[in-house]
Design a protein that fits this description.
Elements (H helix, E strand, L loop, with lengths): L1 H29 L12 H18 L11 H14 L1 H4 L20 H4 L5 H10 L10 H18 L5 H7 L4 H9 L4
Helix pairs in contact: 3-7, 3-9, 6-7
Bound molecules: heme C.
Heme C binds next to helix 2, helix 4, helix 5, helix 6 and helix 7.
Length: 186
C-alpha cells in the first residue's frame, strides 16, 4: 500500500514536471507570448515581476551600509549625476520624463513620488545593481560606490523637492540643459 502510494506520488511529480516543461517550450518556440512593449503586461505577469522585484531588493539591501545623514554637498553632487543619467527615464521636479521612456514596459516611475516608497539602502542597491527584465540599468560599474552614494543621497531628497530647488541644485545649466535637449523642461 505504502509502496503503491510512493510510486503514484513519483509518477505524479514526473508528470507535472513534464507538463510544465512542455508548456514552457511551447510558449518559447511558438511565439505565443507577445513581447511588444506597445502592449501592457498581463496583470499576472505584472504582479509577478513587481513582487519578485520588491522582495528581491528588500532581501539584498540589508547588506548596504550608508552614513546616518547625507551632507548638502553630497546631495548636490548626486543631483548632477541624476540630471545626467536618470532624468530621461524618471523625471524630476518640474521636468517630465522623456516621451520615449513612456514606451517602456514597465514604464519607469516618476521618482519624485516613487522614491518615498524605498529606504536609502534599497535605493542604493537598485542604482548599483539595476533591475533585470525592466530596463533599469546597473550604475555601480561606472559611477562607483561614491557616485552611487551621492545619487542615493539626492534621490532620498526628491520627494517634496520643489522645481526651484532642483534647478538650483543642478545649476540650471549644463546638466539640466542636457536633459532639456531631449525633453524640454516645464
Ligand atoms: C533607460 C531608463 C532608465 C534609466 C536611465 C534609469 N532608470 Fe531607474 N528604472 C527604470 C525602470 C524601467 C524601472 C522600473 C523597474 C520595475 O518596476 O521593475 C526603474 C526603477 C527604478 C527605481 C525603483 C522605483 C520603483 O518604485 O520601481 C529606482 C529607485 C530607480 N529606478 C533609480 C534610478 C536612478 C537613481 C537612475 C539614474 C542613476 C535611474 N534609475 C536610471 C528605468 C531607468
Amino acid at each position: 500500500m505504502t509502496k503503491q502510494l510512493g510510486a503514484g506520488l513519483v509518477l505524479g511529480v514526473i508528470g507535472t514536471v513534464l507538463i510544465a516543461v512542455a508548456v514552457w517550450l511551447t510558449v518559447a518556440y511558438t511565439g505565443a507570448y507577445n513581447v511588444a512593449a506597445s502592449d501592457q503586461h498581463a496583470d499576472a505577469i505584472r504582479w509577478t515581476l513587481d513582487t519578485t522585484m520588491h522582495r528581491s531588493v528588500e532581501r539584498r539591501a540589508g547588506d548596504v551600509e550608508l552614513p546616518e545623514t547625507f551632507s548638502d554637498e553630497l546631495v548636490a553632487q548626486g543631483a548632477g549625476h541624476y540630471a545626467e543619467s536618470c532624468v530621461y527615464c524618471h523625471g524630476a521636479p518640474g521636468q517630465d520624463p522623456t516621451e520615449w521612456s513612456r514606451g517602456m514596459r514597465p514604464e519607469p516611475p516618476h521618482l519624485t513620488e516613487a522614491a518615498s516608497e524605498w529606504s536609502a539602502e534599497e535605493i542604493y542597491w537598485i542604482v548599483e545593481n539595476g533591475i533585470k527584465m525592466s530596463g533599469m540599468p546597473a550604475f555601480g560599474g561606472h559611477h562607483g560606490p561614491e557616485g552611487v552614494t551621492a545619487i542615493t543621497a539626492f534621490v532620498t531628497r526628491l520627494p517634496g523637492l520643489s522645481p526651484e530647488d532642483y534647478r538650483a541644485l543642478t545649476g540650471g545649466g549644463a546638466a539640466a540643459a542636457g536633459g532639456a535637449a531631449i525633453a524640454p523642461a516645464d
